[in-house]
Amino acid sequence: MGLEYLYSIGLDVNDVESLKANTDDNTYSDLTLFEPLVSLNIKYMKDFGIKNYTDVLIKYPGIFLRDSESFQNIFSKFDKEDLIQKVAKNPAVFKKMVEFVDNN
Amino acid sequence: MEKFEFEDERSFELFGGFVGRTKDLFSNLIDDIRANIKDYESRIEDTTKEIADNESSREKCEHEIVKMESKIDSIKETIENVENTYKKIADAYSSTSKGETKELYSEIIDGAKANCEKDVEKNRSEIARLNSDIEAIKNNISEFTKIIDDLNRDLENYNLELFKYNKALEYMIRTSEKANADLDEIQDRKEVVKKPEVRSAKRLESKRTTRSRETLLDVPTPKERKRPNVMETIETETFQTPVSKEPEQKKETLENSLKQIYDLTGYSPKKEEPTLETIEPPKPEPVKEPEKKIYTDNLEGLFSAPVDNKATEVTPFLDTDFSNWENILNAPTENKTEDKKNEETVNQLLVPYGTSFTKLRSLVNSEIVHKDGSKEHFDIKAEDIMKAVSDIDGNDLKAMKTVGPEITLLRKIKKMKEGIK
Questions:
Q1: What is the pLDDT of residues B78-103, one digit of tens each?
Q2: Which of B64, B170, B237, B404 could form a disulfide with B253 if both were Cys (CB 3.0 to 4.6 A apart)?
Q3: How far apart are CA B237 and CA B219, in angstroms?
Q4: What percent of chain B has pLDDT over 90?
Q5: Contact residues for B106 (Cβ-Cβ < 8 A; gap 6+)
């Protein structure tokens, strides 16, 4: 099955290749094994309004390997418009947000 | 309440360094907020300076445009003068020209005309060049304006964030002071709680030695583990301790254990889920009491968590369904009834983590694909979950707190399976 399920969520072949290149084997196998959970999290981010969610996924796939409740909790901590705007400018901001939520 | 040492050198920390860690946590939080405030203050300073620089550049551009426009006006005046001069020359010579002089004058007029046209042409191209420069400078001005607007927006956001952080700092300092006072109170009670705990641990050990060793063959023996896992903690605190003596202490310890799990997993029990009250089989004459919340997410609530002082209440569910968990764990699942029973046991085990066997299975695929393309079958059985739950350690609880209990358990199962391979 691999990561083919990501095509239906909006990623293309190049995105999946980049994602593969950017992950270690453990994360890669986690992404294939926990497909239902990862799909749920990606869809939530997409529906939330983050347009460059594919960039976030490619750069920080580990973030999506969380319980959906924990994942959605990240978004609830910040102002929606501000979050969308900041992540659109730089996907690394989302990683910082996750770290902030985890450490607090 | 902190560290417990048994006779066989085993030890565990139920609330190991709890007070100190919580105080550190508050202190770190406050430090982080202060660092953020400093960061935002420095950003505000930088942004203000940047805005001033850009405004100064924009002003310079505007001055430059004014200068260029004035130069254009001056060139236009020059053109007009040249053309007037030519007209005057032409008028003067053409009106008086007669005979041979007419030819001479004609040459003079043509020469003047050529010079005039040359000058006009030169000046017009100069005007065109200046106009083009003005356009370029206007573009620069609009760029500067855009940058200044962005910077002003950033400045506004930074000011807002700074305000929020200042408020958060104020709140955290207040909360920290109150929590520290509560923690000091807990610390004072430490010795009182510690003594009976050690006695109960000793009883556990003596009871364990009389138990069949066969049932423990497949799980790590107590000596192999330096720190007991959650199930052991629950068992130690509830299953093995004789309830007839010190029932109040026992009840409180169980609640503390559950509370710790709830705290670390971020799970809080719901009304319909099995709790102490719901799991207990009904007594002949049950006395209904208002349901008390064991744990709330609120720190203040945690410190003032209600303590059940009813000494008469026992927790028999542990003796009936649960106390046999090690046997259940090791018993071979021969038929479907056994599987179903195992599933029920697993569901009971997963209650503190806010999930269930079915939910966990729904979150995984039936196969793992590796980067090199190799595939392997993956299936979660009740035994896998039991083993994973019984092996939960501090790191797992920490992971549960951040990424959630479900993914933590699933990853643990995956790791265990990979380890077996």
A1: 888 888 888 887 777 766 555 666 66
A2: B237
A3: 19
A4: 15
A5: B93, B97
Taking CA atoms, B225 is separated from A104, B1, B58, B393, B400, in Å, by 31, 20, 71, 11, 21
Note whether B403 contacts A28, CB cutoff 8 Å.
Answer: no
B161 to chain A: which residues are within 8 Å by CB? Answer: none
Cβ contact, residue pair B403, A30, below 8 Å:
no
B370 neighbourhood in chain A, CB within 8 Å: 25, 28-29
Pinpoint the alpha helices (H) of chain A: 13-21, 25-33, 35-48, 53-59, 68-76, 80-89, 92-103
Question: Which residue in A17, A29, A98, A104 has the most chain B C-beta atoms within 10 A of its own C-beta, making it the best mutation to test that interface?
Answer: A29
B68: its two tokens? 């260029």
* Confidence (pLDDT) at B3: 56
Q: Model ipTM?
A: 0.89
- Alpha-carbon span B254 to B33, nearest angstrom: 36
Give the angle B202-B260-B277 at the CA atoms, nearest 5°: 85
Contacts of A19 in chain B (CB under 8 A): none
Look over chain B and give the mean of its residue pLDDT values, rounded to a whole number.
71
Beta bridge mates, B12 = B4
Give residue B402's pLDDT.
Answer: 87
Q: What residues of chain A have any CB closer than 8 angstroms to a CB in chain B? A: 1-3, 20, 23-25, 28-30, 32-37, 65-70, 82, 102-104
Query: Are B371 and A37 an interchain contact pair (Cβ–Cβ within 8 Å)?
Result: no
Give the model confidence (pLDDT) of B97-115 as tens digits. Answer: 556 666 677 777 788 888 8
Per residue in A37-71, pLDDT tens? 999 999 999 999 999 999 999 999 999 999 999 99
Gap from B62 CA to chain A (nearest CA, Å) = 31
From the CB of residue B276, how many other CB atoms can be counted at a distance below 10 Å?
A: 20
How far is CA B102 from its chain centroid? Answer: 97
pLDDT of B183: 82
* C-alpha pair distances (Å), B97 with each of A5, A47, B17, B100, B367: 97, 90, 118, 8, 109
Structure tokens, B233: 């903690």
